[in-house]
């Protein structure tokens, strides 16, 4: 999967430290996972908190007091993934799985711990003027590998000014550093970031997260403006410069079978015992092995036999694995939703003329076609919550007091609710779509409308979800759906991303392959109708970061959504809010509008069902599980 905003896959580990590599994008992201709900089929899934929601933010996490025993170093931590990665270049990677692997060997500036505490890693980011100017103090014990020497503030400033803010460079973090944001070095180990306007939640946007990259390594490519050469640089691809900047060191990368990492005995966070006493001699495994195991059955078999210390557990097998003596299953709150994304670009809706996905009433009709409670209970076996808008229920920003329309539940579910809205939509078009006596939606040629729905190959839960959606669309919307499996990386490259038009400079906007231009002008190489390949990040720590999903000219709009509400003004108001109270009020209005407009089928927040070897000490059932991964160890 190559996507800057989304996550996907039953095999993805939950944990802030595994996802924080993703900058302000919402997909493939940066934070945690979760949820588990019950219900008798009459209540909505959000009426009952999940088992993990009570402490989703980790505020009740106990802090060890007094002296603690430092674990012995030894052994191997084994993990498995479902597919190989395309690159480990930290400057250009936009894939969640690769971000996890990069994170083993290379930290970013900071992370988040229980209670939404900002944990300084490479630098400590603070403000004393209400959030307009932020000061980063770089640790003085950071060392690059090779002959690159000590990490200083100059390396970070050069990276931003000469790459992320340069027009010639297509780095993954470029959208996080618009020209209106200024960065300057104010000391050998200090730099300042000045924003156009104050933002007290700036760290939670993930924008100021930076990788440490040697200035000396970058300079030849900057001089030649050689974007392609930098993407192919061997030191970046193999993380050869990482020095003491990560818990582990990449030793071997077999492109098809996996990676081997060795313990970094000089890891800089060993001096950060004020944050966690267990960092004193971290990390505690001599080696870390990540293997590519494409079949879910084989990954689960490895977890059961002890060949791997981690594997995601599908909903239908949670109880089975949790009952094993050698496995513990953690349900971890997470921000990623399950969405059925509609292609509103010119090569979407291939069932007939026009593009019905562009009609708000049509999307509302599709929202009424899927029984979300049944999806949660059937496909996810209750280990999920229904989603109605762009926040999980446990978020402090969730609009609990607002009148959020609950599509897919109660009166907003079923054939009548779906087809009446779809009828309104087709009456609003110039094309002669109609329903026949059997409740089938016919195109102008008299054939039943048939569309495609893509899901990730090898992901059984995702396949089941796609099949359930297809059945519900057929029954309630009268639309036939062909379900197709595809590799996530292939879908991203050939369907999700657009081909940048040759006349991009003449377009109203062209912001890279994830929004190469207006939906009538820029399309992907292949046509597609719907997908559940990617789930998206709802950013419960700071929903401001989710703005990118709901602006037609943002740098991330693969699906060609044009809001029918004044999204630009509301997001601008939110970005300029001067208090939490004001921000809450604006977010409430935004989330109601999103629920009403149905930009995509917002379905569920599944739990991260993470199966670990029972002797692994470290995982926790809160949103921030994994922030302290270097301190994880095996119980004696």
C-alpha-based Rg, rounded: 24 Å
Amino- and carboxy-terminal Cα gap: 37 Å
As laid out across the biggest beta sheet, the strand order is 15-22-14-20-18-19
Number of helices: 15
Segments where pLDDT lies below 50 for 5+ residues? 1-52
Task: Work out the strand percent.
Answer: 15-25%
Counted beta strands: 25
Q: Structural class of the helix and strand makeup?
A: alpha+beta
> Mind summarizing the main beta sheet?
6 strands, mixed
- Which descriptor suits the 3D outline? globular
Approximate helicity band: 10-25%
Mean pLDDT: 90
Walk me through this protein's architecture.
With 636 residues, this protein is of the alpha+beta class. Helices cover 23% and strands 17% of the residues. It has 15 helices and 25 strands. It has helices spanning 16-19, 96-105, 153-164, 215-224, 227-231, 234-237, 296-305, 318-322, 360-369, 372-378, 415-427, 460-477, 488-496, 567-575, 580-597; strands spanning 6-7, 76-81, 110-113, 117-120, 123-126, 133-138, 182-187, 190-194, 248-254, 258-263, 287-292, 310-312, 327-332, 338-342, 384-386, 434-435, 441-442, 450-456, 480-486, 530-531, 535-536, 601-606, 608-613, 616-617, 633-634. Strands 15-22-14-20-18-19 form a 6-stranded mixed β-sheet. Strand 7 (182-187) and strand 8 (190-194) form a beta hairpin. Helix 9 (360-369) runs antiparallel to helix 11, helix 9 packs across helix 12 and helix 14 runs antiparallel to helix 15. The longest helix is centred in the C-terminal third of the chain and has 18 residues, at 460-477. The two termini are 37 Å apart. The model is unreliable at 1-52 (pLDDT under 50).
């Amino acid at each position: 999967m190559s996507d800057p905003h989304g996550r996907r896959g039953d095999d993805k580990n939950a944990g802030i430290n595994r996802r924080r590599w993703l900058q302000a994008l919402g997909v493939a992201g940066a934070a945690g996972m979760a949820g588990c709900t019950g219900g008798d089929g009459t209540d909505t899934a959000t009426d009952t908190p999940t088992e993990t929601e009570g402490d989703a933010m980790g505020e009740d996490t106990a802090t060890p007091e007094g002296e603690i025993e430092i674990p012995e170093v030894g052994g191997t931590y084994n993990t498995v993934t479902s597919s190989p990665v395309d690159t480990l270049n930290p400057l250009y990677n936009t894939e969640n799985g690769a971000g996890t692997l990069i994170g083993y060997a290379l930290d970013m500036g900071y992370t988040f711990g229980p209670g939404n505490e900002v944990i300084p890693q490479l630098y400590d980011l603070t403000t004393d003027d209400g959030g307009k100017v932020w000061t980063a103090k770089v640790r003085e014990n950071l060392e690059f590998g090779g002959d690159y020497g000590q990490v200083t503030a100059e390396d970070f400033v050069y990276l931003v000014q000469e790459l992320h803010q340069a027009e010639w460079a297509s780095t993954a973090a470029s959208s996080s550093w618009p020209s209106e944001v200024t960065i300057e070095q104010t000391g050998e180990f200090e730099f300042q970031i000045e924003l156009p306007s104050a933002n007290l939640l700036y760290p939670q946007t993930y924008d100021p997260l930076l990788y440490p990259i040697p200035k000396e390594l970058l300079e030849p490519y900057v001089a030649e403006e050689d974007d392609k050469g930098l993407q192919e640089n061997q030191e970046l691809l193999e993380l050869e410069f990482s020095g003491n900047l990560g818990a582990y060191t990449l030793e071997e990368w077999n492109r098809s079978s996996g990676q081997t990492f060795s313990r970094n005995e000089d890891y800089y966070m060993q001096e950060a015992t004020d944050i966690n006493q267990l960092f004193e001699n971290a990390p505690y495994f001599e080696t870390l092995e990540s293997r590519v195991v494409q079949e879910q059955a084989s990954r689960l078999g490895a977890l059961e036999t002890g060949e791997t210390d981690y594997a995601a557990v599908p909903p239908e097998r949670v109880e089975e694995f949790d009952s094993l003596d050698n496995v513990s299953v953690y349900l971890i709150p997470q921000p990623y939703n399950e969405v059925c994304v509609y292609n509103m670009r010119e090569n979407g809706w291939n069932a007939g003329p026009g593009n019905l996905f562009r009609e708000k009433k049509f999307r509302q009709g599709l929202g009424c076609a899927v029984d979300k409670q049944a999806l949660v209970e059937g496909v996810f076996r209750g280990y999920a919550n229904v989603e109605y808008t762009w926040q999980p229920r446990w978020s402090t920003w969730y609009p609990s007091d607002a009148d959020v329309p609950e599509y897919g539940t109660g009166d907003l579910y079923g054939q009548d609710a779906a087809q009446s809205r779809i009828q309104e939509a087709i009456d609003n078009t110039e094309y002669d779509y109609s329903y026949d006596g059997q409740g089938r939606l016919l195109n102008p040629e008299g054939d039943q409308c048939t569309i495609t729905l893509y899901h990730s190959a090898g992901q059984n839960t995702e396949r089941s979800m796609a099949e359930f959606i297809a059945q519900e669309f057929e029954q309630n919307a009268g639309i036939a759906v062909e379900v197709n499996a595809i590799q996530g990386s292939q879908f991203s490259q050939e369907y999700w991303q657009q081909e940048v038009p040759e006349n991009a400079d003449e377009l109203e906007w062209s912001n890279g392959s994830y929004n190469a231009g207006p939906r009538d002008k820029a399309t992907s190489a292949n046509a597609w109708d719907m997908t559940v390949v990617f789930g998206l990040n709802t950013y419960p720590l700071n929903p401001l970061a989710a703005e990118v999903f709901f602006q037609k000219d943002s740098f991330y709009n693969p699906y060609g959504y044009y809001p029918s509400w004044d999204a630009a003004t509301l997001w601008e108001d939110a970005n300029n809010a001067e208090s939490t109270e004001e921000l809450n009020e604006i977010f409430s209005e935004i989330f109601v509008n999103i629920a009403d407009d149905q930009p995509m089928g917002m379905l569920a927040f599944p739990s991260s069902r993470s199966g670990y070897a029972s002797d692994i000490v470290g995982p926790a059932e809160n949103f921030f599980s994994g922030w302290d991964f270097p301190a994880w160890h095996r119980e004696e």
